[in-house]
Predict the 3D structure of the following.
Amino acid sequence: MTIRRCILCAFAVAASLLAAPVYAQAVLPRPIKFVVPQPPGSGPDTLARTLADVLARKLGQSVVVENRPGANGTLAAAYVLSQPADGLTLFLAGVSNMSWNPHLYQSLRHQPARDFTGVAVIADTPFVTVVAPSLGVKTLPELIAMAKADPKRLSFASAGIGNSTHLATELLMLRTGIQMQHVPISGAGGPNAVTSVMAGDTPVMTTVPVGVVPLVKTGKLVALAVTGERRLPQLPDVPTFKELGIDMEVPGWYSVVTRAGVPGDTIARLNAEINAALDTPEMKERLAGQMLTAVRSTPADVLKLTQRDSAAWGPLIDRLGIAQ
């Protein structure tokens, strides 16, 4: 091999190392931060911690979960956007953070579709409408009939204005022509709201199944219908809205995003590792436990869903007049 050829080979090796994704390095300048907009112990938090453990093992790098709850995820989003665009700060973002917040907050200083780069869509959840046993209804048609007979009688709980538990029931009312009074109740993931439903104070709620299926099975709540194409295996006797002739497509996806400007090769490496993580026993167990469906995706899929659900739900948010 000539001296000239050796020099060229050395340059090629050096160039390949410089072009390698930051995650391919043995030691990174700081731990990877995985920011969660909900408090410790919530469903998204436990999902993020399981994924962080798997990624840490695969990447050979510490992955630390940071909880920054508040303001429907806007505080967490602002923090992520304040960090360097190096791919070392990740954000577990749901549909509300990416698609709905621009319509809910007039003073929002960022635009998710512009300021974040999608890494991967990781999971999706269905929703279930539940009622208090004391209400005396067993089916969704019975609830609709009750609400139409006395439009001022019923109220429904949510985990907050603009939360998915709020907008899902607003969509139900729009699709069925009924009226119910909205009562937002604070509480991480809606536990206080669920307690209010069980007590019959606010006897209706549409929420994710993970926190309510055990209560349905013990008779503390009555499930009337679920979103999605198929019935939940955990609630095989509860029909889908589609079976009942009601169009109730409520998005419940979770994604991993980071600040825009992160190199594409780093995004591609992260996407590949996250998709692979979904096949690990730990993630399969976590997803099944939270009644989530794994979603294998490309980075571009995050933007597609963000734009789709912004266009679909923005008009409803505007119609409700709930922007702050």
About this structure: The two ends are 70 Å apart (CA to CA).
